[in-house]
């Protein structure tokens, strides 16, 4: 459920008509609902009720400072994967002891930054990384809490590009080698083994793979405890999927997920961490764009928008579906027509949808891409020298620009021309 609903014939974000925001900031723009962010965070938090737990928002999904502040104030931890994300989390006021550092290629500089600034734990992904972290921690006189990310060889049954827990994927260490790697971790200075980490993929709408992976983690917990390791924390990753199409069957719910966690690892007495990104942010945002032209092709009509693949890359990159709806509510009984919905960028991949049934549109009309709050703005670029589009946050009947559109001068002046040219 989200807070983008039609009211009086037009689409609102909470109590603000999107048309009003468009008039103020100019389309295209991202618009987020603080009520939806809050709701989704709380649903996940409640799903783990009764277990000692921390929901660490995977901020790669949407890392705007305002969003991090909103979630941080609700008690969220943060899952970060770079020094930049760590800095963003800290800048938004999230304390280090709520920040988990994930990622397959952490550098020494990033490790030092997080150790000095405070960190809840590092999720280690390889032996070479472990050796470097040990050296950095020891040189700072620190003992840092670590888990090792295990690759359980479970197919998350999701898109190839976002599946991370199969044998051939680059993430984690093979679960079959866990005992040896944990023995090494325990022997190294500067590291304090505290648990196990696993993350098998993203946009998982079938939760059974979680069950398989968590069962393996539970077995491993017993084995490692038998080897004398302290396993008091399980980081169970993120990946819960969301419905991108209104017509989808009922989506799996956070409480179903919570039930799986309870059943598979609840008896171990471990503190549970999860790292959801999309489930919190996805339906909390829309991308609003304006129709520039309606163009008749040989055998089809093109809806040419002023948003493009550089603003929302998911359709071009993963063939992802986003519902695209008119901001002005279509009249009841109005017959839909079909459009290829495209952006102005000079490649055919700049296509949001093909043959999409929509109400008849004309130049100047506004449309909203639903479910664009996760992996939307954060994956945007300035390709074709298109300025990054603004982000707006709505709270009840108020809205604020939380990232302004840069001016062309700002964009151009980031480059420098060497003297010798
Ligand atoms: N934890 C780790 C270690 C991850 O790699 C990810 C996502 C998450 C948590 C959060 O997963 P989520 O709950 O958001 O599914 N750009 C792609 C998604 C990439 C996900 C990468 N890792 C997309 O637009 O679908």
Helices and strands in order:
Layout: E1 4-7, E2 10-13, E3 16-17, H1 18-25, E4 29-33, H2 34-47, E5 53-58, H3 65-73, E6 77-80, H4 83-91, E7 99-101, H5 108-117, E8 121-124, H6 127-139, E9 144-151, E10 173-174, H7 178-187, E11 191-197, H8 208-226, E12 233-235, H9 254-265, E13 271-274, H10 278-281, E14 285-296, E15 301-305, H11 314-318, E16 324-326, E17 337-342, E18 351-358, E19 366-369, E20 391-395, E21 398-403, H12 408-412
Parallel strand pairs: 4-20, 5-6, 5-13, 6-7, 7-8, 8-9, 9-10, 9-11, 11-12, 12-13, 15-17
Antiparallel strand pairs: 1-2, 2-3, 4-14, 14-15, 14-19, 16-19, 17-18, 20-21
Helix pairs in contact: 2-9, 5-6, 8-9
The protein binds ligand LLP.
Ligand LLP is lined by residues 58, 61, 79, 102, 162, 199, 202-203, 237-240, 275-279, 314, 318, 375.
């Amino acid at each position: 459920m989200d807070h983008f609903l039609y009211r009086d014939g037009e689409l609102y974000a909470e109590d603000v008509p999107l048309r009003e925001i468009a008039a103020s900031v100019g389309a295209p723009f991202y618009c987020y609902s603080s009520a939806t962010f809050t709701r989704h965070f709380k649903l996940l938090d409640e799903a783990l009720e009764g277990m000692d737990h921390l929901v660490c928002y995977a901020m790669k999904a949407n890392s705007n400072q305002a969003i991090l502040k909103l979630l941080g104030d609700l008690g969220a931890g943060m899952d970060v994967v770079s020094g930049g994300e760590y800095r963003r989390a800290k800048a938004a006021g999230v304390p280090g002891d709520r920040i988990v550092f994930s990622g397959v290629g952490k550098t020494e500089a990033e490790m030092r930054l997080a150790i000095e600034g405070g960190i809840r734990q590092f999720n280690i992904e390889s032996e070479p990384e472990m050796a470097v972290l040990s050296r950095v921690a020891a040189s700072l006189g620190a003992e840092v809490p670590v888990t090792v990310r295990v690759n359980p060889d479970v197919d998350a049954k999701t898109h190839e590009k976002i599946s991370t827990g199969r044998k051939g994927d680059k993430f984690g260490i093979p679960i079959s080698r866990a005992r040896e790697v944990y023995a090494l971790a325990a022997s190294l200075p500067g590291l304090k083994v505290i648990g196990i980490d696993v993350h098998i993929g993203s946009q998982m709408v079938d939760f059974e793979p979680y069950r398989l992976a968590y069962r393996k983690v539970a077995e491993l917990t017993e084995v490692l405890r038998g080897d004398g390791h302290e396993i008091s924390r399980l980081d169970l990753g993120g990946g819960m999927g969301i419905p991108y199409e209104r017509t989808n069957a009922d989506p799996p719910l956070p409480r179903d997920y919570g039930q799986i966690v309870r059943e598979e690892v609840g008896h171990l007495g471990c503190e549970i961490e999860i790292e959801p990104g999309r489930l919190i942010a996805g339906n909390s945002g829309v991308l609003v764009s304006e129709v520039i032209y309606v163009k008749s092709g040989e055998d089809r009509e093109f809806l040419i928008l002023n948003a493009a693949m550089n603003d929302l890359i998911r359709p071009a990159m993963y063939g992802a579906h986003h519902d695209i709806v008119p901001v002005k509510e279509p009249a009841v009984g109005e017959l839909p027509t079909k459009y290829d919905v495209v952006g102005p960028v000079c490649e055919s991949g700049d296509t949001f949808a093909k043959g999409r049934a929509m109400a008849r549109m004309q130049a100047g009309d506004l449309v909203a891409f639903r479910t664009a709050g996760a992996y939307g703005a954060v994956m945007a670029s300035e390709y074709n020298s298109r300025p990054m589009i603004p982000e707006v946050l709505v709270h009840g009947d108020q809205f604020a620009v939380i990232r302004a559109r840069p001016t062309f001068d700002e964009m151009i002046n980031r480059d420098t021309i060497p003297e010798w040219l």
